[in-house]
């Protein structure tokens, strides 16, 4: 039985408002349970090297934040391998210390490699070999178990890199890995489709970038495994109030394709998700099907916000043509929008350029 320390008690009191208010019929929460983070939550984020020792920053882990994640229903954190850290993402590289810390809080860990993913002509066979060898080294350092997944971020629209270059990149990765790790791709729908059709990866993760080539068609094909539905959340009941600004992204798993994203537990085993829970999460999320959909404090009341075309909301309840919506994935609804402005997750509308501006969340 876990000891209720003063820190844990205060953390749990602070996060009570982050708990899901509405549960589906199965009794399982529809709150976000898989997040990705560009940097670890440390109170001294000043890492200058990949490996940590007593002289580096990133030595004061923000345990309150990780306790809050676990208490709010998060069970998996996706973190990075990257060639180097930078000014915006100190502590970007996951370390053995962080792996142990996540597992101590009951959180599974999944891995994505990303470095200069938006550079033009970056993806080539030679670079695939280099990146795969780097990932093997990092996997050895943190003790990533064989058979888990490493995703590779092709983090740009299709115009920056050729189909041939991306294909040769993943061919090289597969050759270097030689079956030791599952290969995943984080990319626009067109790139996921390209690599999936070529049989060069087994896990397909679509970014929250609805304008990118092929994303609309790929999402509606139902071939995707994971969708990053919200990005850069730092003002929710889960992320706020921990002594630092912490950005998280949230993700949805497609239960028609998988019960796993290749994450691993503290004992090295694969983290599997309950199929009923995954289904409930999908069914609770909807696309916005209007250029700009107002959110009101109550049906017919004052406008308190808005959401834009081809973005998602989490519907916590609906009645009389109105949907109560959570737009920052902390389980608490921000207000109400008209139900006929929404489409289920298997019917993504085409993104189009409008005057609608995304709100900070």
UniProtKB/TrEMBL annotation:
It holds the Pfam family Rv2525c_GlyHyd-like. Residues 69-253 form the Rv2525c-like glycoside hydrolase-like domain. Gene3D superfamilies: Glycosidases. This is DUF1906 domain-containing protein. It comes from Parasedimentitalea maritima.
């Amino acid at each position: 039985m876990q000891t209720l320390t003063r820190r844990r008690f205060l953390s749990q009191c602070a996060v009570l408002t982050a708990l899901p208010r509405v549960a589906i019929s199965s009794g399982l929460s529809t709150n976000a349970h898989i997040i990705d983070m560009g940097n670890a939550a440390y109170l001294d984020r000043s890492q200058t090297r990949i490996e940590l020792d007593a002289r580096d920053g990133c030595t004061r882990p923000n345990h309150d934040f990780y306790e809050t994640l676990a208490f709010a229903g998060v069970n998996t954190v996706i973190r990075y391998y990257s060639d180097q850290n930078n000014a915006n993402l100190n502590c970007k590289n996951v370390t053995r210390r962080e792996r142990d810390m996540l597992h101590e809080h009951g959180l599974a860990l999944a891995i994505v490699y990303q470095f200069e993913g938006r550079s033009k002509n970056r993806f080539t066979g030679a670079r695939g070999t280099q990146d795969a060898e780097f990932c093997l080294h990092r996997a050895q350092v943190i003790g990533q178990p064989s058979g888990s997944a490493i995703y590779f971020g092709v983090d740009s629209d299709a115009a920056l890199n050729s189909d041939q270059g991306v294909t040769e990149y993943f061919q090289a990765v597969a050759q270097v890995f030689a079956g030791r790790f599952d290969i995943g791709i984080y990319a626009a729908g067109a790139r996921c489709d390209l690599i999936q059709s070529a049989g060069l990866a087994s896990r397909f993760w679509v970014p929250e970038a609805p304008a990118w080539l092929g994303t609309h068609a790929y999402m509606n094909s139902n071939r995707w495994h994971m969708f990053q539905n919200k990005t850069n959340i730092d003002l929710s009941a889960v992320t706020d109030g921990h002594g630092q600004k912490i950005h998280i992204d949230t993700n949805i798993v497609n239960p028609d394709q998988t019960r796993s994203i290749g994450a691993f537990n503290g004992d090295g085993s694969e983290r599997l998700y309950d199929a009923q829970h995954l289904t409930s999460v999908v069914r609770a999320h909807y696309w916005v099907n209007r250029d700009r959909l107002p959110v009101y404090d109550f049906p017919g009341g004052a406008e308190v916000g808005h959401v834009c075309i081809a973005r998602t909301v989490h519907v916590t309840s609906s009645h009389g043509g109105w949907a109560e919506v959570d737009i920052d994935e902390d389980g608490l609804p921000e207000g109400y929008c008209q139900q006929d402005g929404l489409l289920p997750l298997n019917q993504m509308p085409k993104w189009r350029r409008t005057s609608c501006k995304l709100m900070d969340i």
